[in-house]
């Protein structure tokens, strides 16, 4: 296949969930050719260069298929970073951030479910992708619920601590007056 065909095939198999920039496809093909993993294999009448896996490329692809995806190698989780920062920046409505994300994730989950019901049972590749997206959205909603609960417990603890500190301060402030009052009474 040539680059545009690879892009179209990828998007068809993944339901266009992760659109590819065709320029990036050709840049990647050039790197793969440089590294000996693909080789040109003729052209069509329009000058599109077809690529095939080399023996070394086949070994690399087979290794990729059989190697589990490592969690530490995944991209940064922007939402987790956003919430971690929101907690530390004064004036940010962290609960509002959580609620806005939950609303958006629920909307996405409904859209994914709609897409799944409209997919044909024979479209196994797309069904697997959409199932993954549904499960990830459900997990994100559970995590957001957890975050909201943790935030509420933290606020309650802080409120209780401030309340007990305030009570202790009032008691300490009242204590000298009581001592002075009792010394006046004993005279």
In words, what does this structure look like?
This protein folds into 2 domains: 1-67, Orthogonal Bundle (Arc Repressor Mutant, subunit A), CATH 1.10.10; 76-187. Helix content is 72%, strand content 6%. The chain has 6 helices and 2 strands, in the order ααββαααα. The protein has helices spanning 3-13, 22-34, 55-66, 78-88, 94-118, 124-186; strands spanning 38-43, 49-53. A hairpin with a 5-residue loop joins strand 1 and strand 2 (49-53).
Name a few traits of the molecule.
mainly alpha, about 190 residues, 2 domains, about 5% strand, two-stranded antiparallel ribbon, Arc Repressor Mutant, subunit A
Tell me the strand order in the biggest sheet. 1-2
Rg, nearest Å: 30 Å
Count the E strands: 2
How many angstroms does the end-to-end distance come to? 105 Å
Helical residues, percent: over 70%
Net shape: elongated
Mean pLDDT, as a whole number?
A: 86
> How many domains is the backbone divided into?
2
| Tally of contiguous helical segments | 6
H/E topology pattern? HHEEHHHH
SSE-based structural type: mainly alpha
Proportion of strand residues: 5-15%
Largest sheet: 2 strands, antiparallel
Uncertain parts: 183-187
Q: What's the short version?
A:
This protein is mainly alpha-helical and 187 residues long.
Summarize the SSE layout with pairings:
Elements: H1 3-13, H2 22-34, E1 38-43, E2 49-53, H3 55-66, H4 78-88, H5 94-118, H6 124-186
Antiparallel strand pairs: 1-2
Helix pairs in contact: 1-2, 4-5, 5-6
């Amino acid at each position: 296949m040539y680059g545009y065909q690879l892009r179209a095939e990828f998007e068809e198999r993944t339901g266009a969930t992760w659109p590819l920039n065709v320029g990036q496809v050709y840049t990647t093909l050039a790197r793969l050719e440089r590294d000996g993993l693909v080789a040109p294999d003729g052209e069509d009448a329009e000058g599109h260069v077809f690529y095939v896996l080399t023996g070394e490329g086949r070994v690399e692809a087979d290794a990729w298929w059989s190697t589990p995806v490592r969690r530490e190698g995944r991209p940064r989780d922007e939402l987790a970073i956003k919430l971690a920062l929101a907690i530390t920046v004064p004036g940010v409505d962290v609960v509002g951030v959580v609620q806005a994300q939950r609303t958006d994730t629920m909307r996405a989950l409904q859209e994914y479910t709609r897409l799944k019901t409209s997919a044909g049972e024979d479209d196994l590749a797309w069904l697997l992708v959409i199932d993954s997206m549904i499960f990830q959205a459900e997990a994100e909603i559970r995590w957001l619920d957890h975050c909201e609960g943790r935030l509420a417990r933290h606020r309650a603890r802080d409120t209780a601590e401030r309340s007990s500190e305030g009570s202790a301060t009032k008691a300490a402030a009242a204590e000298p007056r009581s001592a002075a009052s009792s010394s006046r009474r004993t005279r």
